[in-house]
Each structure stands twice: as C-alpha cells, then as structure tokens.
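Form 7-S
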Amino acid sequence: MRLRELDLAVGMFPTGPENAITDVSGVSVGHAQASSVATGLTAVNPFDVSDPHRTYVGRWALDGGDDATGLGLAEDFGALSTPLVLAPAASVGRVYDAMIQLGLAIDVGLSEDRGWPPAVLPVTGIGQPAAAVRAAIDDDLVAAALHSATRTKVLEGQVGIGQSLLGFGCAAGVGTASRRVGPQMLGALIAVNGGEASHLSVDGHRLGLSLPAVDASRLRSAVAIVITDAPLLPQQLQRVAGRGAFGLTRVGLLDELTHAATIWALSTNAPIDEVDVATGTIDAGGVSEADLPQLFAAAAEALEEATLNALLASAVDPVSGNPLPTDGWPSRIRQQRYNG
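Output:
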C-alpha cells in the first residue's frame, strides 16, 4: 500500500512514473536480507555499479555531525564516487571493507573517481543485538545489495535496512517518492526509525493517533538520500539536503527524541565544463538562485511522502502479505481525506 492508493497526495509537484528515487535516470536500488537476524542492507547506486565515477554531493545532519563514512571527501571536495549503502550501525566496518574489496576489483588503484572512499550511512536503533548484526553481515551480503539493484520498482517497508525498524508506534522501514520540477527529476529514499504516533501528519494535517509510544530506550533515527538530475553544485546540494529536512519535520518524524538524522543529496548531472588548460580553471554552471526554491520544496515533499510510504508498506508483511499490527492507522488516513 502507498499513500496515493488512499487518494492522498503531499505537496504541489507531480511525481515521476514510479514515484520513486529510480525515476531519476541511471539510479538503482537494491536490498539484501540477513539470514540469521532480522536486518539487512539497502544500496542506492547513482550510476552503474560496475562503472563508478565522481558525482557531486551535499549533506545535512542533525546536531551538525554524523558517523557516516566518506565524510572527508564529501565535505572537502563535495564529491563521491561510490554507491551509498544504508547499514546497521554495528556493521559499518564490515560493509566498508566489503565495498573496498568490490572497488579494487574494478580499479586496483581505487582512486577518488573510481570507488574510494566507500559511503556507508549507519542506521541506529534497529532493535537487534549488535554482535548478531555484525556477524550476519558479510562481503556476500554487501555484494548482493549492490548487484541486485534495480532501476524499476523499489521495494518498500520491512526490506533491506528496513527490517525491524519502528516508527510512529508501529512497524516502519524503507520508503521512496519522487517529484518532477519542470524538466528535472528529484527522487528520495528514506529509512524511517522514529516518530511519535500523536505527531504523525499528512500534508500538514495531523491525524491524532493514539498508538503506544516506542520504547524510550530505543534510539530513534532517520537516514535519507535525495538524488536529482538537476545540475547542482555541492553547496547547492547541501542546501537541498537541509531544506529536505523540513519535510521530515512536517510529517512528524524529526522531534526532540530523535537521536540521529542525516540527508545526503547527489546530482547525477555535474555542471562542469572542460578545464581551461591555460588558466587551470573550470567553468562550473549550476542552477540559478531563483530556481532553487522549487527544488527545495520538491525535496521536502518527496521525503515527506517517502516517510508515509514506508509506514504504509510496513503495514503488510513483505513475505506472507499478511497485515501487521497498526491499530488501524491506515484506515484512519482513509477516513480523513482532504483536498491537498
């Protein structure tokens, strides 16, 4: 189930064909499930995994920092050349090492343009024993997440890193959505792991649910990726990531109890012209300042809807198709339709 199947929408921009991050040309998403513990990995590839290249990146993080890998290059150069893998916090080192091994198979030099450093985005508070998680995630699981990635339908809910996540008093997980802004496409994917049921809102309309609160001892987190084909510079992508956080606040995911949250924004269309050899300079384009607010709004809309899609998809067991306990909140959304 997805939000639009309930005749509800978020914001003003149209979606892409699949209403998913894969609506951005060249982007793919893969999930892998661990066999011995209820967790897994989710990989987002902005390019063909066998042909990495540098892409511009910007990021936003709650409280000014996070524990993701690849931050040095992302912050100093505004660039990355690896897929982004969402992983349980306890397995970050294992995933990092596996991505290096895969990168070496592509380029023995493992240059900054061909797969180094790996970008692993930790998801905290997954509710599984750290030792079991660390033991369950190995090179094969990382390879499965990366190489099974598809550019068509993105699985949502309790799949990949989404397994065992809780949000707004019920099962949560992975969600995705997209927005078209003129000729440009922007897509988002998020791992939802937090939020109070009483704060859950749809397009500014608070539902007023009374589901039980998540155990206060469990850390709450949100990790999101925004990708666009708009030709944005690193500082512009940083601003897109930061404005995208407004959508997570509006839906009720970010609050005073959130332990960790981060949004990474990438452009698949770097606005760089040829290097002027004589002067050693590069002409870099980018989107004009006047056109950025629409992309800001699109990022917030896509992340808000992706959060709701994660919750709705998680209301159904991905294997059996049977409903999971939700205390009837999807029905509450149906009953509270509105023009928006």
